[in-house]
Amino acid sequence: MSDSLLQDAPSTAAHPLPDWFRKNQKAAAARFDTLPMPTRRDESWRFSNLKAVDPQDFAPARPVAPELAAALLSRSHGLKSPAGSTVFANDRLLAHQLSPALAAQGVLWLPIEEALQSHGELLKGHLLKNTPLLGSDKFLALHQASLRAGSFLYVPKGVHIEAPLQTFHWVAGSGQAVFPHTLVVAEEGSSATVVDWFKSEGEARNLSIAANDLVVAKDAKVHYVSVQDWSRQSVSLHSNNTNVAAGGAALHLGLHLGGVYSRSESVSRLEGAGARSEMLAATVADGAQEFDQRTLQEHGSPDTYSDLLYKNALYDRAKTIVSGLIRVAPHAHRTDAYQKVRNLILSPDAEANSLPGLEILADQVRCSHGATTGEIDPDELFYMQSRGIRSTDAYRLITFGFLNEVLDRLPHEELRSQLQDALKARLRGH
Amino acid sequence: MSTETISQLDVDRTRGDFHYPEQHTFDAGVGLSHATIDYIADVKNEPDWIREFRHKALDVFESKPMPTNWASKDLDNIHFDKIRYYLANAQRPTRSWDEVPDDVKRTFERLGIPEQERKFLAGVEAQFDSEAVYSNMKKALGDQGVIFVGSTDGLKDHPEIFRKWFGKVIPTGDNKFSALNSAVFSGGSFIYVPPGVKLKHPLQAYFRINAENFGQFERTLIIADEGSEVMYMEGCTAPKFETATLHSAVVELVALKGAKIQYVTVQNWSANVFNLVTKRAVAHEEAEVKWIDCNIGSRLTMKYPGVVLKGRKARGEVLSIALANNGQHQDTGAKMIHAADETTSNVISKSISIGEGRASYRGQVHIPKHLKGCKNNTECDALLINSTSRTDTYPAITVRGSGNSVQHEASVSQVSAEQIFYMQQRGLSEAQAMSLSVNGFVNDLVREFPMEYSVELKRLIDLEMEGSVG
Question: B252, B278 in Cβ contact below 8 A?
Fold first, then answer.
């Protein structure tokens, strides 16, 4: 099944890619071939509709025509003045820029292929180094074998980047597969905010197997936001790995809007004392959409903190799965770990699955998880209607407020308001 | 906490660590085959339909793989070919206390069941190895039309009720161990409560294992007819043996319209017992089923009592306390399957992990499409006593459609050093302080228990803490 997908995967870069990278890609291709497709009997795929995921239906994306490229570029509205900005269409680079002031401070913001050529050794230690833990081994092998597009951010020691850096990943044309990657390496005491926009041109059916690695060194701070807004026919798999060293802090926020089947896997590894990670997601599911979310909060050191908040609003025949695990290693004493899943069901045909798990092997741990599933409180609705708000508007307002609680956790104001706009646009018509 | 404390917190198992010479007239030998099934059916002089049922169940058992996803690797240590699947004393179940053999009486005395209590309780169905050797029902029960007999008597003497429900709540093929039980079951209770009869006193059965390598496969079926009420109590301790013992019961409850069933278990098998139990109830319209489940003993317990809420306004509840000490894994939980409008369910689970003990909660809540007004509340609290203790929570909640409300909460905490220090300052020993904290942790749940059991449970928790650091 892999043949069609892997055939023209090798890079067309002007400069050769490092040997280690090509060797890894070859090994990944072989792994993709030999690994079996997961089944629902695998605990990490429980409740998933695996029939929706068949890589055979897709081929690696071909470049878009120049006119379309220009059109997509003009539609890549992001922040007014980002620290850096990059645009890809069908895994090909369209535009790239970085604030010169940051370049002067030693910040690297590069398309990943260019980074591999110019800073291969720096990437070697971080790119896809984590073992997949949440079930997508096979798909991540395909990602690695096919990887050509994405952004690499390197923030030197002590450098703070105020404005976010943004990347647009466009896909156009039916049956195209893309493999976006984002690698962020934040050195000691540095900070940065990175946002990925995933967007489709039109309503064609596509496949995206995306991954990102967030490497947060001692006392560094990384905020990462992904807005998954692929077409409603598309299949999306996204794996996130966050590694936080002592005193570091990470925030990972996913706004999930598109795709017919969309799976996101997110692992936070708290690897040093005092490391912190926030894991956030807001999902709007309607039609026959399925959002399959798997998370792991891996506490490997004492005095670490993690907090997860995943919220789903479900319409029509939509289905969501949130399977989360907090794992506290035997020596990770005094861990604080929280996990909250909230499902708002707005239709008699929607289905919400929650699997909040805990595995605690340490002492003096404060852990809790909660999962609730319910509908809109009739009192809230009545209150709004009694103040002259139409019932459809009231429903939409309450739903927006429900999901906005997640977006409110993002400190960057302009980015937050962009996410709110995207959420409002998505809720229009409900 | 020091490692010394860990060892000293271990339960005093010597209380159940004794047994008397075995005099088994009927013994099916070791291992399981169709011949074993025929042997059991012959000895028990069972009708053909049950013999056939057993044979089919054996085929299902053999065709099913061992559980994989959920199961502990420890299950691989069960050697099915080394287990005795049936043995019984030759006695017929006896009616009066005087007829009970002396060594059995001595066993009960060592277990500390007061004579007074035995007389006071409405009926006692005590199981000594697979067969009921003692059964005593107050005449009043019989007058009310209540049937309280062993499962074998139930299927022989009351086939018209028994056959209608037997194997319907938990089909043979439900899981590998329910199939095993269906093939070789003996012992357990059959209870039928006629419409409108509300039993004031609990029905009670004590179980014991008393043969090395012997697995016990009770089969209990309780039917509460319309508007009736019954409470059943099951408690067990087992003597300690060097090789593992398998215990695999199947318990089926049927609560018809408006009926109430409470099923209480205090499980205190010795630490070499594999306790793999399937328990499920069906609650019809406006019926209530409550499982009260305490797991203190055994090496590995896997038990997830469930309620299928089949009728409108049916209610299901699981109250669970698990205590896992060194070498123990308490893998317990609850299943609530909502199948009608306005059904409600409540699960409260408290677990305590001591030393290297591991307590796991697994739960399933299922609300299918087009139901209205269903509610579930689940709370799981875990208490870790030592730095080597482990606790896990693995719930799975599926809700289809709006109009229902489900909430799940879990927390993990410790007995804080400050608390212990505070109590020690006021003159309590560390062990007393620990015992008090643990009892405080489970107290609000224990209060929900019937009197006899809350007393027994508190005593058992104290025992766990007995001899702790002084």
Answer: no
Local structure of B431: helix, strand or coil: helix
Query: Which contacts qualify for A120-126: CB closer than 8 Å, 24 or more apart?
Result: A120/A17, A120/A18, A120/A20, A120/A21, A122/A154, A122/A185, A123/A21, A123/A152, A123/A183, A124/A18, A124/A20, A124/A21, A126/A183, A126/A185, A126/A213, A126/A215
Residues A110, A15: Cα–Cα separation, whole Å: 15
Task: Kindly state whether residue A174 falls inside one of the protein's structural domains.
Answer: yes
Q: Find the domain containing B59 and state its range.
A: 23-416
The secondary element (H helix, E strand) that includes residue A207 is strand A207-216
Report percent pLDDT > 90 for chain B: 46
Residue B303, domain member (yes or no)? yes
Q: How far apart are CA B224 and CA B274, in angstroms?
A: 30
Contact B396 A46 (CB under 8 A): yes
Q: Measure the CA–CA gap between B230 and B283, rounded to whole angstroms.
A: 14
Domain annotation covers residue A42:
yes
- By Cβ distance, the residue of B69, B387, B409 closest to A43 is B69
Type of residue at B221: L
Nearest CA-CA distance, residue A410 and chain B, Å: 25
Residues 359-378, chain A, touching B (beta carbon < 8 A): 359-375
Domain annotation covers residue A265: yes
Whether the model clears a pTM of 0.90, i.e. scores above it, the answer is no
Tokens of A345: 């069901």
Total count of domains within chain A: 1
CA distance A238 to chain B (A): 23
**pLDDT of B212:** 34
Chain B residue closest in CA terms to A41:
B69
The minimum CA-CA distance between B408 and chain A, rounded to whole Å, is 5
8 Å CB contact between A404 and A375: no
CB contact under 8 A, B398 and A352: yes
- Buried b or exposed e, range B406-424, using 16+ CB within 10 angstroms: bbbbbbbebbeeeebeebe
- Top residue of B70, B366, B387, B388 to mutate, by most chain A CBs within 10 Å, is B387
Residue A30 lies in a domain: yes
Residue of A nearest to B362 (CA): A357
Q: Binning pLDDT at 50, 70 and 90, where does residue B9 land?
A: very low
Q: Enter the ipTM.
A: 0.84
Instruction: Print the domain residue range for A76.
Output: 3-378
Number of independent structural domains in chain B: 1
CB atoms within 10 A of CB A54: 12
Model pLDDT for residues A113-143, shown as the tens digit of each residue: 999 999 999 999 999 999 999 999 999 999 9
The answer as to whether B227 is a domain residue is yes
Q: How far is A80 from chain B (nearest CA, A)?
A: 40
**Token pair belonging to B441:** 């942790």
- Indicate whether B456 belongs to any domain: no
Q: Do A370 and B408 touch (CB under 8 A)?
A: yes
In this complex, which of B392, B399, B411 lies closest to A352 when CB atoms are compared? B399
